[in-house]
Amino acid sequence: MLRRLFAFFVIATTSLGGCASAHRLDSWDDSAARESITDFVARVSTPGSPEYVPPAERVAVFDNDGTLWAEQPSYFQLLFAMDRVRALAPSHPSWNDEQPFKAVLENDMTALADSGHEGLVEIITATHAGMTTHEFAAIARNWINTARHPESGRSYTEMVYAPMLELLDYLRANGFKVYIVSGGGVEFLRVFAEEVYGVPPENVIGSSVRTEYAESRLGPVIRRRPEVAFVNDKAGKPVAINEHVGRRPIAAFGNSDGDHQMLRWVAAGDGLTLCVIVHHTDAEREWAYDRDSPIGKLDKALDEARLRGWTIIDMRNDWSRVFAAPMPRD
Amino acid sequence: MLRRLFAFFVIATTSLGGCASAHRLDSWDDSAARESITDFVARVSTPGSPEYVPPAERVAVFDNDGTLWAEQPSYFQLLFAMDRVRALAPSHPSWNDEQPFKAVLENDMTALADSGHEGLVEIITATHAGMTTHEFAAIARNWINTARHPESGRSYTEMVYAPMLELLDYLRANGFKVYIVSGGGVEFLRVFAEEVYGVPPENVIGSSVRTEYAESRLGPVIRRRPEVAFVNDKAGKPVAINEHVGRRPIAAFGNSDGDHQMLRWVAAGDGLTLCVIVHHTDAEREWAYDRDSPIGKLDKALDEARLRGWTIIDMRNDWSRVFAAPMPRD
């Protein structure tokens, strides 16, 4: 009761005070990157500021893989799909001799990579479809609650970046609506986004398989069909944001060329905008990769960020802490 | 300043008081329909109630045409499309001899109806595509601000139902997230939904043409392509709600068989649910139609509503006021 009253008091004083809510960006060093973010937030959220933006229009979009949580040695959802192939293999004996499934079952990452985009689609449709949305959520939830990262031995939800969690809170405290805009599957992300990031399901935008309404024995359900409906990557991201949010965001956060069009589109909006790239420079506490990485390749977007003065987060130098607890390495 | 402080006080006392926010459903008669709505809201929003639902899960979905605003003599967006055909005709001389455009230019509603679904798609793609989303919004906004309803002579945004506006406010005051889920085009609806209904763009779900990201002379834009991407009607509605919101709503409001699957899906959810049908029974103040109407046909959904005890709003008897000001009729 008292806590709730106190919360209202805080909201009231923040709104009346008319300046950016004090940040608790504790895992950030006192860097140019942090300064550019807090400066932007103050300018768009302080009433009377020439760059003031009403809360309804304070939309910030975040990529997920490599921006909010790690993405090495491979996208976590691909590791989920591979675990599903292993779990489903006993009822698909033909997979032992059939690519790309054979590669998964033999843990042959080279053969898996050789199967390319088509192989990936085959794995996704074989593991992410053929059930109701409710059933899929239960499978994904069970995995996220039990699976462990191959290098850290941690749960995947412990592989989120502490500074980015603080940033999400900081933006929300300053009246921003925060969306996740991920190449990952929307119904996979929704299983943990609310608990881990504080982002409710309706603020998650992702890739999807085709779904359809069906009247089952148990009543009406939504079924997942073995067909990729939308790939929320590259030029797909601005398209999906426009479709889902109906406004151009004023801030965008990404880490790879998959976010390039989203960043460009946000940068081209009216008024003050903020474009931020998380640059993976920390081989010790996380991973170091950019232009030559098959996962999270950052090349053209890095060039443009430097050319146009976008904010680049240097993980090694700008973050005092990467994960809530350091990753155990030998 | 004082108003804002007062608003916080109201929120605080409402939350602390722990009972449904007092309604101002002034345009509603003291009817069974109103009672069923206020009873449902009290049961799901009062802490300690056996049917209590946390605010995050209090999702209510509303059809638009015939549920929030009128839809006679034809869907308003079709009237917009016909106005666009007339406006664009000078640069398309072939339309004078070519269906379905000829029918529009000659105001021949029979020939237009004969052109069927394919004719409709041709009109939509010819009038709703080929420009950026920004340009389309400007065209739609200009129309909505200047066009007049053929029978009432009013602007279309004056053809919204006063009791439903009160209901939207009432639900929001009780912690509901309100979504529009319309067969109409999402980018058409977003032009007025926030101002007229208080529903922000991100809470509007509708039909869409295919959009694509493009690098134009003016920078990155989203272009509307002449191709229908999604029809948000019938079985499409639950699919789109699941995709967009990621939760099954607990309350749904519709008026036609186009809302039937959405209502059935919501009714099949866990816990207490509310399914409401607006029944057009008022030939004097609005229009009276149901099973035999080509617009807003209500047949199977009406049977099921009666069979399962869904709430049916009898416009003639349950609403003391339909529009904010009565429609001028001779």
Could you please describe the fold and organization of this structure?
The structure is a homodimer of 330-residue chains. The first copy, chain A, is α/β, with parallel strands linked by helices and 330 residues long. Chain A folds into two domains: 18-72 and 153-208 and 229-318, Rossmann fold (3-Layer(aba) Sandwich); 76-146, no CATH class. Helix content of chain A is 40%, strand content 16%. Chain A contains 14 helices and seven strands. In chain A, strands 4-3-2-1-5-6-7 form a seven-stranded mixed sheet, with helices on both faces. Chain A is globular and about 65 Å long. Residues 1-18 of chain A have low confidence and may be disordered. Chain A binds chain B through residues 1, 4-5, 8, 11-12, 15-16, 56, 133, 177, 186-187, 190, 194, 200-202, 204, 208, 211-213, 215, 219-220, 222, 235-236, 238-239, 242-247, 261, 264-265, 268, and chain B through 1, 4-5, 8, 11-12, 15-16, 56, 133, 177, 186-187, 190, 194, 200-202, 204, 208, 211-213, 215, 219-220, 222, 235-236, 238-239, 242-247, 261, 264-265, 268.
Brief write-up:
Two copies of one chain form a homodimer. The first copy, chain A, is α/β, with parallel strands linked by helices and 330 residues long.
Q: What is the secondary structure topology, with strand pairs?
A:
The structure is a homodimer of 330-residue chains.
Chain A: H1 2-17, H2 32-45, E1 59-62, H3 76-88, H4 101-105, H5 109-114, H6 116-128, H7 133-146, H8 162-173, E2 177-185, H9 186-189, H10 193-197, E3 204-216, E4 219-230, H11 236-245, E5 251-254, H12 260-267, E6 274-279, H13 300-308, E7 311-314, H14 315-318
Parallel strand pairs in A: 1-2, 1-5, 2-3, 5-6, 6-7
Antiparallel strand pairs in A: 3-4
Helix pairs in contact in A: 3-6
